[in-house]
Structures are given as C-alpha cells and as structure tokens.
Write a structure and sequence with these properties.
- The chain has about 220 residues and is α+β, with helices and mostly antiparallel strands.
- Helix content is about 20%, strand content about 35%.
- It has 3 domains: about 35 residues; about 120 residues, Immunoglobulin-like (Sandwich); about 45 residues, Ribosomal Protein L24e, Chain: T (Roll), CATH 2.30.170.
- It has a 6-stranded mixed sheet, with no helix packed on it.
- It is elongated.
- The termini are far apart.
Length: about 220
C-alpha cells in the first residue's frame, strides 16, 4: 500500500478523532462554566408548578455578612409553561439581583430558558432553571439595628457615612465606633417567589431565614 493511499485511508479516522476531541473540550468548558460559583452561601431547590410549587427545604442564612449568594435550581412540573419572574419578598427589603447560570457553550443537550427583561422566557415542562441570587442585607442603624428609613441622621467616620435613627445612637457610635455592629445580628424572614409573569400567581415559593430560626444551610 502506498504512503499516499495510507494517508487517505486514515483521513476519516483523523476526522473522528478531531470531532471527539472538540466535543470533549466543549463539554469540559461547559461543565466548568455551569459549575462555577460566586462563593455560595446556600443552595435552594424546588419544583415549579401551576399549583404553587414546593421547596425541598427552607434556607437558613447566617448573620454577619454584607452579601449572600444563593444558588437556586428548580424543575418544571407539567403542565406548567410560561414566563417566570423572580423576586425576593419581605421587610426590611434587602438588595436583590438575579444572575442566570448558563454554560459558555450551549451543546443543545438541554433546553435553557433565557433571562430577558427580568423574566425567564418560554419555560416549558421538563425544563430546569438554574440561577444565582445576590442578596444584600438592608442598611441599618449600626447601634440598634433598625432598618434605615425616613428621619435617619448621618455621621461620617473613617471616610464612610453611617446612618442612625436618633442622636443617641449616633453619639453612642461615635463614642465607641469599634463596638460590635448591630448589623451583624440583623434577622429577618423572606421568601424567594417565582411568579408566572402573565397571571402573577406564585409557581414556587422558597422561605429564606436570615440570622435566626430553623432551616437548612449549605455552607462552602
């Protein structure tokens, strides 16, 4: 057999190797992208349903952090289909942002509803939503822990502004600015609510407990 014929005969094999190698690299990149975490505080799982859905367990977030990153995954139970908007409900209202978890390279192995204009669009039975929720506790008086509101006064210390419900709290802080902050003891009960965009009915509710009470935490 000539060398030229041998090279031609091996061409299909080389193409198969190249295709397999490309697929393997794509899978590896997708897995890395899909499993990357932002220093997660907890993981919540639930099922989206026309009847309101259910969470596997409430989520417990420990006090003492200026930011939490909660991973939420939810499977869609038939026959629900529609657009889903995500919110965090409760008082005092914390800061809240949704970041979808999507692979860098979409291999088409699973349908991925995309987040657009604040809602996951075109959700269908059998889909699985995955997202990160960035939660920032509300600003509070560092002495008494009252959530910041109308009538609060401000004082600057070490280049930062601090807000107080009264002159007494302000003066107590300035007299001992290194005292443990009441912010770190802040507690509250919230709900992550996934709603059908058209009807606004809840399709999944996940209780979130910040700083106290029972629940489940998945620390990292």
């Amino acid at each position: 057999m000539s060398a030229q014929h041998s090279l031609k005969g091996n061409a299909p094999a080389r193409r198969r190797v190249a295709v397999v190698a490309t697929f393997a690299v794509s899978v590896a990149l997708s897995v890395v992208a899909a499993t990357h975490r932002f220093g997660d505080s907890a993981h919540a799982m639930g099922m989206i349903s026309e009847r309101g859905g259910s969470a596997r367990h409430p989520v417990q977030l420990p006090p003492g952090r200026g930011r939490y990153t909660l991973v939420v995954t939810a499977s869609v139970i038939p026959p629900y289909r529609g657009d889903v908007v995500v919110s965090l409900e409760g008082e005092p209202a914390p800061g809240f942002a949704v970041h979808p978890s999507e692979p860098v390279i979409d291999l088409g192995l699973r349908r991925i509803p995309h987040l657009r204009d604040g809602a996951f669009r075109g959700v269908e039975p059998g889909d699985r939503l995955a997202m990160w929720l960035a939660i920032t506790p509300p600003p509070v008086d560092p002495v008494c822990g009252h959530p910041r509101g109308p009538g609060f006064i401000t004082a600057r210390h070490d280049g930062r502004s601090h807000w107080f419900c009264s002159a007494d709290c302000r003066d107590a802080f300035l007299a001992d600015p290194d005292r443990p902050s009441a912010r770190w003891a802040l507690a509250g009960a919230y709900n992550i609510v996934l709603r059908d965009l058209e009807s606004q009915r809840p399709v999944l509710t996940i209780p979130v407990i910040l700083g106290s009470g029972g629940g489940h935490a998945h620390e990292h």
